[in-house]
């Protein structure tokens, strides 16, 4: 697979940048225009790192969410067969996103990672509340969500 798009928002000195990556892409420009910042953003996302306070614009807390998104294409047939990849695909793409927020200088930044994929099967597919209650894992989820009857169950089921 190949990295084909990078989007960076509110990261260091970059407020918003979208870069389309071709087979051979070179970042060229003067000093302090963001070449290394783009590479650092990619590294944070791909290495599943958490941004530090130094990664925020002006090193200050903000209400703005930091986002780094990478999109991968040209996924090879053998890659599609790997369970770790096949379940994360959205059509012909693998989209990975990191979002972070830092609103309080006295607290650490909060960070979450996401994969944009299409869910085709869930443990609740084609199960009514009676069948769900018989499955120990699903029964635990129902209990945690305080779902006790068929009406509550039906109200919470989302069809994809």
What's this model, at a glance?
The chain is of the alpha+beta class and 160 residues long. It has helices spanning 35-46, 77-80, 83-86, 129-134, 136-144, 150-156, and strands at 2-11, 14-20, 62-73, 94-102, 110-116. The protein has a five-stranded antiparallel beta sheet with strand order 2-1-3-4-5, with helices on one face.
What does this entry look like structurally?
There is one protein chain. Strands 2-1-3-4-5 form a five-stranded antiparallel beta sheet, covered by helices on one side. The model has no long low-confidence stretch (mean pLDDT 89). 26% of the residues lie in helices and 28% in strands. The longest helix is centred in the N-terminal third of the chain and has 12 residues, at 35-46. The relative contact order is 0.14. With 160 residues, it is α+β, with helices and mostly antiparallel strands.
Brief descriptors of the model:
single chain; 5-stranded antiparallel sheet; alpha+beta
Fold topology:
Blueprint: E1 2-11, E2 14-20, H1 35-46, E3 62-73, H2 77-80, H3 83-86, E4 94-102, E5 110-116, H4 129-134, H5 136-144, H6 150-156
Antiparallel strand pairs: 1-2, 1-3, 3-4, 4-5
Radius of gyration: 20 Å
- Helix vs. strand class: alpha+beta
As residue ranges, the low-confidence spans are: none
N to C succession of SSEs:
EEHEHHEEHHH
Beta strand count: 5
The portion of residues assigned to helices is: 25-40%
């Amino acid at each position: 697979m190949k990295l084909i798009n990078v989007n960076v928002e509110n990261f260091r000195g970059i407020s918003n940048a979208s870069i389309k990556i071709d087979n051979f892409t070179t970042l060229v420009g003067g000093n302090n225009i963001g070449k290394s910042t783009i590479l650092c953003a990619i590294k944070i996302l791909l290495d599943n790192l958490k941004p530090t306070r130094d990664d925020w614009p002006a090193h200050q807390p903000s209400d703005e969410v930091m986002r780094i998104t990478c999109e991968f294409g040209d996924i090879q047939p053998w890659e599609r067969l790997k369970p770790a990849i096949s379940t994360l695909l959205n059509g012909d793409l693998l989209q990975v996103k990191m979002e972070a927020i830092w609103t309080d200088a006295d607290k650490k930044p909060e960070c979450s990672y996401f994969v944009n994929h299409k869910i085709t099967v869930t443990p609740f597919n084609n199960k009514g509340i009676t069948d769900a209650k018989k499955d120990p894992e699903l029964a635990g989820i129902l209990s945690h969500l305080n779902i006790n009857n068929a009406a509550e169950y039906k109200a919470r089921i989302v069809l994809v």
